[in-house]
Design a protein that fits this description.
A: alpha/beta; four-stranded antiparallel beta sheet; about 25% strand; B: 2 domains
């Protein structure tokens, strides 16, 4: 699987937003590769550019205020950035699907679940309405919605949050996409429902052989569901590697900060929660050095002057830090501050 | 519905008796003698105590009798039903123009927010709501009837001369009457659409690969319709109640003219009947709008009396 041509290759992606108060460089030189059937997690705090990165793959950013300034998004050999709108539309929902954070607002309240599912199916597949309805029922059954024949005629407000997210997944997967982008799919759900939804996604991934981009700020979700991780900070990738490597040997100080601010299981030796001090930089301003330098407990003069490149410090493990190189390593303090 | 109408009937009755002027005196003219006027008052039943007149009026109403016109000597209901189809014709034409232009204009303005097109549409809407109807009507007559001679200036024409004749008579008044609703629809559509297009489910629709045209005209518009329907209900009620200015300028024999003439002649019975009829129209229109709300927004459930679910 690993040797195949990659499904998706994002190269040096740069996205900016224009507003009356200036231009925000929301994504700044992000690159990653995704193979068939793989799951990649993008983690980072709010405003780190993880959602923007994912949304720009489908080119769903608001066209009037945002622009893809550079880079390529190659999906099965086609550069999505340069694709005409008609071709792009045939990819959306068909080859690449997306589910969003809040299932309460991402389904259209004035159409039945069935209508929204059938619409998705008939947009990309030449089937009769009857056939589409049959498939819609199958999809609802597949995502674990009981009594799909009855539920299909109901409106979103007659569904609970978890059921709505299941319906959303059914819509997203109705055309068997090769890639599913899940933008914080469980953030708005109860903890118990979260686990169900993630399990469902994993199950369907195995069944339908699709790749997943999972955006989250919860490292716990990453450990359980992903093959690879990208850690983003202020629009840049600061560390990327396999989940196993990140779990055993995280290298970037920001990743350490993220780990320290996670709730640890009881009995773990480090039970204390440590927040990362400060706030992310204002992306309207040009950042000369490392974007994390201001908040980094290990920062030295060079960090404020020169932006570190993302370099491969060991096999399949890239880090953007002046002091985490193949030659030298920082000593990680147990608890900062 | 019945209590509303009873209250309206009572209020109209009281106002009619409070305003100065005596229908008997108006009918007989300034030369009539006091005795003549008194005789006439007796014949019209106006010499009876007001309370007695009121009871009489309400009891007749309950029997479906709107009374007899003091001036025309005809059944008030016949007079109204004579004029009402003309008003329906004019209102439907004006509503059609307003909807066909106002709503798409608002949608375009919303999808191209802050563009030149948006500014042009909004400026047009501003002019539309603020332009005096009588002025617009007269200008249209001046240009299209007097100068160009394309359309007749007044009247409704006759179906005997073919539908085309009525249609020609209809155009100028319908355009005149449509401006305010059109501008109102454009504004409310724009603001309602702007709110809807930033919702998550619009992003979902785009992510599914729905064409932008259908994203706007199916997914967004149906959600934006509720406030548009509210405004439409109000405008339709107003138009059906008779558009006094437009009907007067174009001598259109509709409800508005009927009421104005009746007030002039102190024809109590016609004023009472017509206003009551207009009240019925308001109530019925509102009922229709309420039913349409339900069709447009499945979250509205009248049985439980409140909106279900969260949004």
């Amino acid at each position: 699987m690993e040797n195949q041509e990659p499904l998706l290759q994002v190269e040096d992606l740069a996205v900016s937003f224009t507003s009356s108060s200036g231009t925000v460089k929301a994504v700044n030189g992000v690159s990653f590769t995704l193979h068939h059937g793989e799951t990649i997690g993008i983690v980072g705090e709010s405003g780190s550019g993880k959602s923007v990165t994912a949304t720009s793959i489908l080119r769903l950013l608001p066209p009037r205020t945002s622009s893809i300034d550079g880079g390529r998004i190659v999906f099965e050999g086609e550069n999505l950035v340069a694709l005409p709108p008609g071709r792009m539309r045939r990819i959306r929902g068909n080859d690449i699907s997306m589910i969003f954070q809040d299932p309460m607002t991402s389904l259209n309240p004035v159409f039945t679940i069935g209508n929204q599912l059938v619409e998705a199916i008939r947009l990309h597949q030449q089937v009769t309405k009857k056939e589409a309805v049959k498939r819609a029922v199958e999809m609802l059954r597949l995502v674990g919605i009981p009594e799909p024949e009855r539920r299909i005629r109901q409106y979103p407000h007659e569904f609970s949050g978890g059921m709505r997210q299941r319906a959303m997944i059914a819509i997203a997967l109705s055309c068997h996409p090769k890639l599913l982008i899940a933008d914080e799919p469980t953030t708005a759900l109860d903890v118990t429902v979260q686990a169900q939804i993630l399990r469902l996604m994993k199950e369907l991934q195995n069944k339908l052989k699709m790749a997943i981009i999972l955006i989250t700020h919860d490292l716990g979700v990453v450990w359980e569901n992903c093959d690879k991780v990208i850690v983003m900070y202020a629009g840049s990738v600061v560390e990327t590697t396999s989940v196993n490597k990140l779990y055993v040997n995280p290298l970037h100080p920001y990743t350490w900060g993220l780990l320290d601010s996670q709730v640890q299981a009881a009995g773990d030796k480090q039970a204390k929660l440590t927040p990362i001090p400060g706030t992310p930089p204002d992306l309207r301003n040009e950042i000369a050095g490392c974007p994390f330098a201001e908040r980094c407990g290990y920062a030295k003069e060079v960090c404020f002057e020169e932006k570190p490149e993302l370099t491969e410090v060991e096999a399949q493990h890239h880090v953007a830090c002046h002091f985490q190189t193949a030659a030298s390593r920082l000593e990680r303090n147990e608890v900062l501050i | 519905m019945i209590p509303t109408l009873l209250v309206v009937a009572t209020i109209v009755f009281i106002i009619n008796r409070i305003i100065p002027g005596d229908p008997a005196a108006v009918m007989l003219g300034p030369q009539a003698s006091v005795q003549d006027v008194a005789d006439m008052r007796e014949r019209l039943g106006l010499d009876k105590p007001v309370f007695y007149q009121y009871i009489d009026y309400i009891l007749n109403l309950l029997k479906g009798d709107f009374g007899t016109s003091i001036y025309y000597k005809e059944s008030v209901l016949t007079l109204i039903l004579d004029r009402f189809p003309n008003t329906i014709l004019l209102s439907s034409a004006a509503l059609f123009i307003a909807v066909m232009i106002g709503i798409p204009a608002g949608m375009i303005a919303a999808t191209k927010q802050n563009s030149l097109l948006d500014y042009v549409v909004m400026l047009g809407a501003l002019i539309g709501v603020s332009m005096p109807v009588f002025w617009l009507g007269l200008m249209l007559v001046l240009q299209f009837s007097v100068n160009l001679g394309w359309f007749p200036a007044t009247g409704i024409g006759s179906l005997d001369n073919g539908f085309g004749n009525v249609f020609k008579h209809l155009i100028l008044p319908a355009v005149t009457l449509s401006t305010i609703p059109m501008a109102t629809f454009a504004r409310i559509t724009r603001s309602s659409m702007l709110e809807v297009v930033s919702q998550d489910y619009i992003k979902t629709a785009r992510a599914k690969g729905v064409r932008e045209f259908f994203v706007i005209c199916k997914h967004a518009l149906k959600n934006a319709l509720t406030p548009i329907l509210t405004v439409m209900g109000m405008q339709v009620s107003l138009m059906l109640g008779g558009s006094v200015l437009t009907e007067t300028i174009f001598s259109w024999p509709g409800m508005g003219r009927l009421i104005i003439d009746a007030i002039d002649k102190r024809d109590f019975m016609v004023v009472q009947g017509a206003v009551l009829f207009v009240a019925v129209i308001f109530v019925v229109t509102n009922l229709v709008i309420d039913i349409l709300y339900k069709a447009v927004n499945p979250r509205i459930n009248y049985a439980s009396g409140k909106e279900e679910g969260s949004s």
